[in-house]
């Protein structure tokens, strides 16, 4: 059999995506890394371009990806135990580094147990499989990450067993809990700690209070779950993320090692019973190989650095550079969403203008991402800047100056 007929159909679908403005642009390929030098932070080389670029679209908030201690830990673990586990966890694919990382991340976020995944995406999917039952009622924020929504679909949560509350609207959340169908034994309120498209933060302390007040409606109570992928390591007084920022303790924390910690992988941290339920019930944990030991060892070292003087300096520098960039955006008179997080959105509100501004930044040696429909609703088109600890004052000033030199196209 040939793929010719299928290819023709797919080409029509791809052409339709492009015509609707929904197609992703070609992927830029990074081929080189230039370490920081003096007042200049790291630069990246792209295939086909002679320029060196500042990355303003990297999740590596603490700039740990090139830390020599992480690279050394990964190399030593790999030399000892190999590049891959050779099996899934329950078929002797569990290595000492997997267990150590689970214990370390649980301690870091203040939970008694954790299970690690290949990504936070698969962690959210696995958690949904572990927590779902015919009598579980799911309630999520309107702007939750795709992985949370996909997790509910994978877990076959019926429409009658789920609700969505308006973004950070606590009155609406309270109504959703009150309107849960009869017979629901357990409710799960799930939300992003830091919303990745906007950089704003969930009011976790208020969510926890509402969940507690409504818990008697459900025989198994109300479980609060935060996906703190953009918060953990990069936010809060000691880098414990949005729960620390809010002064609240959600029941379950989902996170990633692939952002502030600069490595790869995700985790679910909760009670020992929930961690065991994940091990027994989560397909995205059971039926796929785990992280290689090199990733685990590097992530473990990243956790240790975060609790060191080096980590505290990086977090302070990240906060300083974030404040500097936000002041620069505000001085230009451009619209953003205020807040202390290193995600700094520039609200554009038009797809064509967003693309033009991204191209302007590229021409000035700056990599930034434009978020357009369907990633965000029409009218909410945004350029998402992400500040990293390795950015210098000169880097930030260069980005702001490049923005100030942009001229918006005149209306037709």
* Annotated CATH topology of the largest domain: Aspartate Aminotransferase, domain 2
Class by SSE composition: alpha/beta
Could you tell me the mean pLDDT?
95
Range of helix content: 40-55%
Strand fraction:
15-25%
Strands, total number: 14
Helix segment count?
Answer: 15
Describe what you observe in this structure.
It is a single chain. The mean pLDDT is 95. This protein has a 7-stranded mixed sheet with strand order 4-10-9-8-7-5-6, sandwiched between helices. Strands 1-2-3-12 form a 4-stranded mixed sheet. Strands 11-14-13 form a 3-stranded antiparallel sheet, with helices on one face. The chain is 42% helix and 16% strand. The longest helix is centred in the last third of the chain and has 24 residues, at 309-332. Helix 9 links the parallel strand 8 (222-227) and strand 9. The protein is globular and about 60 Å long. It folds into 2 domains: 4-61 and 312-404, Aspartate Aminotransferase, domain 1; 68-306, Aspartate Aminotransferase, domain 2 (3-Layer(aba) Sandwich). Helix 4 packs parallel to helix 12 and helix 5 packs parallel to helix 6. The protein has helices spanning 4-19, 68-81, 89-93, 96-109, 120-131, 146-154, 170-178, 204-214, 242-246, 272-281, 283-286, 293-306, 309-332, 351-363, 393-404, and strands spanning 30-34, 43-46, 52-55, 113-117, 136-141, 162-165, 186-192, 222-227, 252-256, 266-270, 343-347, 366-367, 369-371, 382-386. It is an alpha/beta fold and 412 residues long.
């Amino acid at each position: 059999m040939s793929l010719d007929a299928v290819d023709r159909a797919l080409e029509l679908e791809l052409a339709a995506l492009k015509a609707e403005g929904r197609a992703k642009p070609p992927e830029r390929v990074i081929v080189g890394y230039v370490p920081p030098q003096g007042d200049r932070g790291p630069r990246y080389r792209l295939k086909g371009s002679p320029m060196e670029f500042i990355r303003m679209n990297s999740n590596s908030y603490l700039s740990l990806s090139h830390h020599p201690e992480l690279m050394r830990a990964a190399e030593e673990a790999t030399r000892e135990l190999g590049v891959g586990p050779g099996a899934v966890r329950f078929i002797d694919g569990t290595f000492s580094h997997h267990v150590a990382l689970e214990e370390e991340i649980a301690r870091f976020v203040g939970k008694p147990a954790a299970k690690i995944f290949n990504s936070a995406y698969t962690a959210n999917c696995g958690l949904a499989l572990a927590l779902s039952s015919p009598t579980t009622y799911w309630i999520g924020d309107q702007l939750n990450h795709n992985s949370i929504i996909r997790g509910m679909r994978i877990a076959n949560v019926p429409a009658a067993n789920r609700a969505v509350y308006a973004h950070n609207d606590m009155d609406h959340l309270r109504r959703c809990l009150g309107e849960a169908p009869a017979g629901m034994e357990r409710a799960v309120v799930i939300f992003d700690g830091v919303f990745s498209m906007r950089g704003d933060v969930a009011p976790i302390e208020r969510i926890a209070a509402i969940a507690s007040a409504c818990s008697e409606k459900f025989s198994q109570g109300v479980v609060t779950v935060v996906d703190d992928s953009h918060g953990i390591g990069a936010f809060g007084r000691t880098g414990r993320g949005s729960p620390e920022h809010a002064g609240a303790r959600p029941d379950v924390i989902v996170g990633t090692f692939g952002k502030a910690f600069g490595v790869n992988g995700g985790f679910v941290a909760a009670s020992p019973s929930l961690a065991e339920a994940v091990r027994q019930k989560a397909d995205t944990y059971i039926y796929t190989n785990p992280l290689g030991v090199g990733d685990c060892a590097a992530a473990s070292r990243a956790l240790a650095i975060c609790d060191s003087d080096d980590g505290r300096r990086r977090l302070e520098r990240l906060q300083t550079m974030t404040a500097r960039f936000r002041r620069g955006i505000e001085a230009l008179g451009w619209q953003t969403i205020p807040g202390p997080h290193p995600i700094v959105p520039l609200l554009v509100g038009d797809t064509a203008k967003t693309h033009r501004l991204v191209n302007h930044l590229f021409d000035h040696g700056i990599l930034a991402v434009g978020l357009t429909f369907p990633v965000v609703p029409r009218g909410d088109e945004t350029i998402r800047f992400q500040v990293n600890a390795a950015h210098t004052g000169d880097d930030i000033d260069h980005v702001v100056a490049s923005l100030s030199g942009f001229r918006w196209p005149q209306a037709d």
